[in-house]
Design goal:
The chain is an alpha/beta fold. The chain contains 9 helices and 31 strands.
């Protein structure tokens, strides 16, 4: 950042001398020179025996402040309660060492606030309740170590807030209660490692927020009761994370499409959310069921290419709440006229709810699934129909009064399987005559009663299987 010319500049040894003289002398001096620039660029504070203390320091009301390239040591630095003026504040490339960096309650003016390429060591970083003005706030390419990073309660103005390419380490990251202005909030390609990421009760303005390409490795990510404008998580990378958007309000478009490694997300909840614009969950493969129960959906929800499956617990039992979640997804798919996808969700819903059944109900439900996938599969009931035709054909041949079927020739087998075929399609006109003639060829004129019993059982089984074929065809070609 270029220091403006033709102004008083407090720099070098003079700046260090005023700083070491203490807060009162410093504050008195800057009040006398409200347009002065302050230049601590490249200053090495790492030799201090205690925390570098800028607590409640005042900076010129209209001047620029430059700490770019400064070095703070392991004792930490405290800017809590400091008040910066309307000029630019530059901490770019600053090394904050391994101690605590405190900016709690710090007030920045409407100039740019730049922490680009700065490095924070292993201590906690505290920007809680900090107030940023209308200028751009730039934390891009900043590196945070394993301590807690706390922006809770901070307020940003109308300018762009840039955390792109920033790297957070394994400590918790707290943006709870943060109020962003109407500028764009950019977390593009930002890395969040292990630890909780908390945006609870945060508010984003009309500029929207982007997590495109961000990496969220492990832990809980909370957006509970957050107010969004446009939000973009398309292309984000996820590890084993749980994402919670309960009670959030989306005033703009919400894009969650094509999330990278979406299968790593352990849970995704939009329960009780309000969507004022479109929601896009397309082209994702989740290993959990997104929870859209009790949500208000104003515009269309895109589920094209969405694949999800219920998570199975250690005892082989799914979360029974997934049944309600799948039912909600089914309703949305039906409203989109995507009958195939609605049927997929319905099948999964039934499989989850099967664990609440017992006895005969459980048996019937299991058979319905195994034979036809709850009316979705055409090939499964056809396979069972062919199997039943073959098995009953063999049975009729074994029940025949004419002895060893292997000595009776091909006509014997032809009659047995012809009789079996006639039981499958009794509604065909020639079926009755075919059944009678093939039966007489097998059993003579006096047909045993057990043959009629077997044919009735085959007819019932065939009717059910043909019905399931018709049901599957209807579901497949439903308009």
């Amino acid at each position: 950042m270029n220091i403006q010319l033709n102004r008083t500049v407090l720099t070098g040894d003079s700046a260090i001398h005023k700083f070491l003289a203490g807060r009162d002398i410093w504050n008195e001096y800057v009040e006398q020179y409200p347009e002065a620039n302050v230049d601590f660029s490249g200053v090495d504070f790492s030799g201090a025996s205690a925390m570098t203390d800028f607590f409640n320091f005042l900076f010129p009301k209209k001047g620029d402040v430059d700490f770019s390239g400064a070095i703070f040591g392991s004792k930490g630095v405290d800017f809590s309660g400091a008040i910066f003026g309307e000029g630019h504040v530059d901490f770019s490339g600053t090394n904050f060492g391994g101690g605590r960096a405190a900016f709690s309650g710090t007030s920045f003016g409407d100039g740019w606030v730049i922490f680009r390429h700065s490095t924070f060591g292993g201590g906690d970083v505290d920007f809680s309740d900090a107030m940023f003005g209308a200028g751009t706030v730039d934390f891009s390419n900043t590196k945070f170590a394993d301590g807690v990073v706390d922006f809770s309660g901070a307020t940003f103005g109308a300018g762009t807030v840039d955390f792109s390419n920033t790297k957070f380490a394994d400590g918790d990251v707290d943006f709870s209660g943060v109020m962003f202005g109407d500028g764009m909030v950019d977390f593009t390609d930002t890395t969040f490692s292990e630890g909780m990421v908390d945006f609870t009760n945060a508010g984003f303005g009309d500029g929207g927020v982007s997590f495109n390409g961000a990496s969220l490795s492990k832990g809980l990510i909370s957006f509970v009761k957050v107010t969004f404008g446009d939000v973009d998580l398309a292309g984000a990378f996820f590890g084993d994370v749980a994402m919670d958007f309960k009670y959030a309000r989306f005033l703009g478009h919400a894009d969650f499409s094509q999330i990278n490694k979406a299968s790593n997300i352990s849970s995704l909840s939009f329960r009780h959310c309000v969507f004022e614009r479109s929601l896009d969950l397309s082209d994702n493969r989740f290993s959990c069921i997104p929870d859209l129960t009790n949500t208000k959906l104003t515009y269309q929800v895109s589920l094209d290419g969405l694949v999800c499956k219920a998570r199975i617990g250690e005892e082989g039992i799914p979360d029974l709440k997934d049944g309600d979640r799948l039912c909600r997804l089914k309703e949305i798919a039906e409203s989109n006229k995507n009958h195939s996808q609605a049927l997929d969700f319905h099948i999964q819903e039934m499989r989850v709810k099967r664990h609440t059944l017992s006895g005969l109900n459980w048996f019937i439900d299991t058979i319905f699934d195994g034979v036809s996938e709850y009316g979705r599969s055409v090939t499964k009931p056809l396979r069972w129909l062919v199997r039943s035709w073959y098995l009953f054909g063999l049975m009729y041949s074994c029940l025949s009064i004419y002895g060893d079927p292997f000595k009776s020739g091909i006509e014997y087998f032809w009659s047995a399987f012809l009789f079996s075929t006639a039981q499958i399609v009794p509604f065909v006109a020639v079926s009755r005559a075919t059944s009678k003639s093939s039966a007489e060829a097998l059993f003579g004129s006096d047909i045993p009663h057990y043959v009629f019993t077997a044919s009735l059982v085959q007819g019932l089984i065939s009717f059910v299987l043909l019905f399931l074929v018709g049901l599957a065809l209807r579901n497949r070609f439903r308009i």
